[in-house]
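Intended use. Records like the one below are meant for learning the mapping from a protein sequence to its folded structure. Do not use them to infer anything beyond what is encoded.
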Amino acid sequence: MRRLLFFLSSAVLGAGLVILLSAGSGAGTWFGIAFCSLLVVGGAAGSRWGPGPVARGIRAPQLSLMSGIVLALSALAALLLLWRPSIGAGLPLYPFLGCVAVSALLLMPVGLMGDPQ
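Structure written out for the chain above:
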């Protein structure tokens, strides 16, 4: 279950990057797709064969803490965009921040699952 959540988190974050990089003239679309693919494949490989705590099946409370911090920073960035909308003029920042927040929410239980060290 934790590997699936880790994989889904990387896929959602990759989708957010595609959304952000394909904005404007669309010149970065292919780069966004390539980067998303690299992120998803790296997430799948890292969750299965990597040296980290997700692949080893142990708890990683620091992962949950950092995910919570990313979630809080995403909320602050959204509030900043509401306060000064001209900051993100022409960029799809709300969908991107939504993808980052969903990715952080998916990573929070990953750090709490597993065996204690």
